[in-house]
Fold:
Amino acid sequence: MSIDVRPFAEVIDADRAGVDPPYDHHDYVGTRLRAPKEPLVIIPATLTEVTGPAYGESPVEPLDADLTRQHAGEPQGQRIVVSGRVLGGDGKPLRGQLVEIWQANAGGRYRHEVDTGDAPLDPNFSGAGRCLTDHEGRYRFVTVKPGAYPWKNHPNAWRPNHIHFSVFGRAFTERLVTQMYFPGDPLFPFDPIFNSVRDEKARQRLISAFDLELTEPEHALGFRWDIVVGGRTATPLEEPHDD
Amino acid sequence: MTDVGLTPAQTAGPYLRIGLLRELITPTLVEPDDPRAIRIRGRLTDGAGDGVPDGMVEIWQANAAGRYRHPSDDRVDPPLEDGFLGFGRSGTEDDGRFEFVTVKPGPVPWPEGGAQAPHIEVAVFARGLLKHAVTRIYFPDEDEANAADPVLSRLAPAQRETLVAVAEDGGLRFDVRLQGAGHTTFFAV
Structure:
């Protein structure tokens, strides 16, 4: 077909300078019927994209950030503190960011009807938390270390221990949903989701660090993990190659 | 720049409901009895045409006058509207259905001058999507504005068609097809 105005450039994978995984990652079976296959259409960042939701004044309660105190009793498992900063790509701390997390319990089971694994549910663990970042962009959760769990991607498939994170950033272009992993997990080489991030350095940024400073003596181990958000592409509108 | 160390995306997985579909953020952007309220229904489907039962759709939009509630929209006019945030979330049900109640946004500026046709930005999350997919909803009663819209007018007709909602049952229908025939046009933004 012909278009009589300047076409937008199209790219196969307009990921953020190689940071994000591609949609189409064959080893992760769930992508096969769901990953968009056609090139993304690049559009400039208009007012629609440079704006975005903010929930900096949400009625978030302190208990929302402590997943070990949301029920009558304490959940089973290794108590941990997970804390870090939400930063812009320029290194600036993002204040008042709503950080939402969800995770499996210590046995590796989600409180969700679709998770039919045979690990037990924990009556004292829901696995959902949220908080707002402080003036330094810092978030902090108290929870238990999620267990690894089996899934049906391939024979004997197990997900590494991980916590799901969601942040908005400063604009719709900075929206990020991701997963935080734990250092030294022996399941890393076998996990197609972790390995969908092709760039080694970028992949390592998904792994938290053990931090004795964050560790609470006689109570909980500390893990530090910073989240850096940034726009997806640098040059949205390219000149056409119509020579 | 690659050395700023951006955090990569990872799939929201099948259990996103636990963390993201709680009471704080809902699919109801305005009260259903608001005289301006419109209902947007749709279905999220995969490459086999099956509904995606474990996904989530987010929408972001300007208010009815065309103003975004955000510091980067620093125009004085059009004005903000009390209580309207412009953001919503809907989970997808067993057959992939999602639904929002909102208002039709006003037109918003294009960076190089002129206006964009009224539209709603959409982000789709699900197991199998390693990062979210972004698209836009345009309105079927805006033929003139749609024809002049800088995004729509640069797309092939078949691509454009996937972005314009369809009037149905007094509301609008907007389906999101991740793959296959009639697949939705997705954007890199």
The first strand of chain B starts at residue 38 and ends at 45.
